[in-house]
Amino acid sequence: MWASTHNDDLREKMSSVVSALSECQSKIGTGYLSAFPTELFDRFEALEGVWAPYYTIHKILAGLLDQYTLAENAQALNMTKWMVDYFYNRVQRVISKHTIERHWLTLNEETGGMNDVLYKLYTISGDQKHLLLARLFDKPCFLGLLALKADDISGFHSNTHIPIVVGSQLRYEITGEPLYKEIGRFFMAIVNSSHSYATGGTSVDEFWSDPKRMASALEDDSEESCTTYNMLKVSRYLFRWTKEMAYADYYERALTNGVLGIQRGTDPGVMIYLLPLRPGASKPGSIHGWGTKFDSFWCCYGTGIESFSKLGDSIYFEEKGNKPGLYLIQYIPSSVYWRSSQVELRQKVERVVSWDQRLKVTVNISPKTQGKVASSTLHLRIPLWTQSHGSKASLNGQKLSLPAPGSFLSITKSWGPGDQISLDLPLIIRSETIKDDRPKYASLEAFLYGPYLLAGLSHGDWDIKIKPNASLSNSFTPIPSSYNSHLITLAQESGNSSFVLTNSARLIKMQKSPKPGTDAALRATFRLNFKTSEFKSTAKDAVGSSVMLESFDYPGMYVLHHGEGEVMGVSQESSVFRLAAGLDGKNGSVSLESENQKGCYVYSEVVNDSRNSVKLKCSSGSPDAGFRGAASFMLKEGMSEYHPISFIAQGVKRNFVLSPLYSFRDESYTVYFNTSS
Q1: Which is nearest to 338 in space by CA: 308, 370, 373?
Q2: According to the model, what pLDDT value does residue 607 have?
Q3: φ and ψ at 442, to 5 degrees?
Q4: Closest Cα partner for 307 from 272, 351, 347?
Q5: Cα torsion for 479, 480, 485, 487, to the nearest 10°?
Q6: How many other C-beta atoms lie within 10 A of the C-beta of residue 42?
Q7: Average pLDDT of the chain?
Q8: Which residues are registered as beta bridge partners of 656?
Q9: What confidence category does residue 439 fall into, taking pLDDT thresholds of 50, 70 and 90?
Q10: What are phi and psi of 308, to 5 degrees?
Q11: Are 571 and 557 in contact (CB under 8 A)?
Q12: Helix %, strand %, coil % of the chain (to 5)
């Protein structure tokens, strides 16, 4: 975070933490530094039950090394070396007392990225001990399988082993051993082809399941957040080495859906451990549910917080040499100073919406030096998810020829003041079949809009109509921006409680006012659907109009009355109501009068001291105060609203509202849909 912001308060705090830890390390006196005693490593080395002490040690070492490499804290580097000396001696004692095989056996316990952090330390220190110790944490029984190109990772704990691959990738960069480059490529290939979800994430209950059996992995505890964090590292290395578009597209997919999707909306520090993908799942339904800002410290909190502190990572990649180049691979509003070319780039991205299906990017380039700058090349990613038809690009208003999707638009020039590049790329809905080679699951598909994985509001129903040989756009209707201004919640007060009109299992009831971002908030939201073509800019402007009430999470389903005295429900048929000023005369209240039964109103009855049953009730004369109150509701803004990227998908028994998975908070959703019906 400090490297991104250079915030002075952050620097002071992190320096204080390093100083305090240094005092602890000095008092221990051996180089060891941790909150738990060394006896845990005695048990670890004796192959006795103990939970992952090296995992924590790796995090401490990685943090200290970052303090040196990013903030130039020399004290942190000395602490790191002292710690590593301690563990070098421990590992050597195990090998001397037993065998090296005994040491390899200890690595069956999770050790985090010990090899990775030790290779990084070696690049700084040049100490052969650090290189040797790093190699001793390269788990041969796992890397050996990958070296043989065997897709045999089933049953391995995912987040134990992805960091080992990351460390082996750094080993390749240090030593040039081609085996470890090939291991990284093969590993990424088998995970993406056989063990990944449409989110870009992997694992179920923290482990890899059988290859191409992902339909069986759709559970409440599917995708571990830490695995996505580490897979991003794998893909980053691979893109740097190869510049292959597939790795850039993967990074975007995993970041957009697997990282942004683990936080509760815009609530900072409220995250989940595992991302549920079971049909009808919800994020708080996973193990541990939502964490808290200050009291949750499981592993995925550490990686989650780190991920959100470095969202600017891997937007730009520099290619050095005689012909400098800069690769722009993520379209995220940002700026960067390209030192070698002495220019600054500012990237502006218009907000993506469903009703204008385009990604619009502007890159402004400004020299930061007097005089003419040397020629350099800017490479802009044309993602695999777009299409050539309708794609546009320009330089200073002059049209550019675009390469096919999956390529880079390369522009070479001596950049001058006011240079501007514009990109305008079509966003299309596409489907992706689940990675499962069993025929009965061939119809399970996820839907993406550009890089955004769409999830449908659903409690488990998942049958979607897809017309054969037709464009998906025929089955998905964009929700226009105007719909949000017509969303309402109807409320009444009773005692000290507030109640809202709710679609409860297709019956209309009054229930206690829920929290936003919940299923109950969805059920308490309705859209005003006007009987005629008249348009009202807001719900309040609709007073006096004839309307139908469409259920927010069941598009195409409307509030329906069955005559006086009958409980109201929700159906594909609809009743038309006149939205009138409230009979109770209160400011902001409304009443709903049946258009085909004049003098009959939507009426909330008191049951067991609470407002529950909702019926149509008629008044033959001047209604009394009790009737007027029960037939009046406060007109409020909808408790829920449509995300700017929202579609209505045609279903077999019902329609679905689809929005980006990352936007969901506590609502129930389905990611993979059955398209066979």
Answers
A1: 373
A2: 54
A3: -65, -15
A4: 272
A5: -20
A6: 12
A7: 93
A8: 649
A9: very high
A10: -75, -15
A11: yes
A12: 35, 25, 40
pLDDT the model gives residue 609: 47
CB 447 within 8 A of CB 651: no
Q: Within 13 Å and on the Cβ side, how many CA atoms surround 474?
A: 7
What distance in Å separates the CA atoms of residue 152 and residue 143, rounded to the nearest whole number? 11
**How far is 591 from 300, CA to CA, in rounded Å?**
49
**Tokens 């109103």, residue located:** 601
pLDDT category at 269 given cuts 50, 70, 90 is: confident
Q: According to the model, what pLDDT value does residue 622 have?
A: 81
User: 604-616, pLDDT tens digit by residue?
Assistant: 976 554 557 899 9
What's the whole-model pTM score?
A: 0.93
Interatomic CA distance for residues 124 and 69, integer angstroms: 9
Task: Check if the beta carbon of residue 548 is closer than 8 Å to that of residue 577.
Answer: yes
Check if the beta carbon of residue 517 is closer than 8 Å to that of residue 666: yes
**CA separation for the pair 526, 524 (Å, rounded):** 7
Q: Which residue has tokens 């470890």?
A: 180
Q: Please, how many CA atoms are within 13 Å of residue 170, restricted to the half-sphere of its CB?
A: 22
Q: What is the DSSP letter of 204?
A: B
- The CA distance from 318 to 337, in Å, is 11
Please answer whether residues 347 and 328 qualify as being in contact, where contact means their C-beta atoms are separated by less than 8 angstroms: yes
Summarised one tens digit per residue, pLDDT across range 146-192 is 999 988 999 999 999 999 999 999 999 999 999 999 999 999 999 99
Half-sphere exposure (Cβ direction) of 661: Cα atoms closer than 13 Å: 36
Residue 570 token pair: 């929700």
Residues 239-243: contacts with CB within 8 Å, 24+ apart?
Answer: 239/314, 239/317, 239/329, 240/317, 241/181, 243/327, 243/408
Mind listing the pLDDT tens digit for each residue in 544-602? 899 999 999 999 999 999 998 888 999 999 999 999 999 999 999 999 999 989 999 99
**DSSP assignment, residue 461?**
-
Residue carrying the six token digits 């406060």: 634
**Widest distance between CA atoms in the chain:** 99
What DSSP string runs through 268-328? TT-B-SEE--STTB-GGGSTT-S--TTT--SHHHHHHHHHHHTTTTTSEEEE-SSS-EEEE
Per-residue pLDDT tens digits for 36-81: 999 999 999 999 999 899 999 999 999 999 999 999 999 999 999 9
All residues at 6 or more sequence positions from 317 whose CB lies less than 8 Å from its CB, including other chains? 239, 240, 326, 327, 329
Give the number of other CB atoms < 10 A from CB of residue 36.
Answer: 12
Alpha-carbon gap, residue 283 to 41, rounded angstroms: 35
Whose CA is closest to 110, among 163, 171, 146, 67? 163
pLDDT tens-digit profile of 90-114?
A: 999 999 999 999 999 999 999 999 9
Round to whole Å and give the CA distance between 118 and 106.
Answer: 18
Distance CA 314, CA 333 (A): 13
Distance between CA atoms of residues 124 and 606, nearest Å: 74
Of the candidates 631, 583, 635, the residue with the CA atom closest to the CA atom of residue 606: 631
Task: Tell whether the model's pLDDT for residue 371 goes beyond 80.
Answer: no
Which amino acid would we find at residue 581?
A: A
**For residues 80 and 71, what is the distance between their CA atoms, to the nearest angstrom?**
15
Q: Is residue 533 helix, strand or coil?
A: coil
At residue 385, the 3 state secondary structure works out as coil
* Token pair 């590992």: residue: 91
Instruction: Kindly indicate the confidence band of residue 677, based on its pLDDT and cuts at 50, 70 and 90.
Output: low
Amino acid at 508: I
**Distance between CA atoms of 398 and 394, rounded to whole angstroms?**
5
- Give the tokens for residue 323: 């012909």
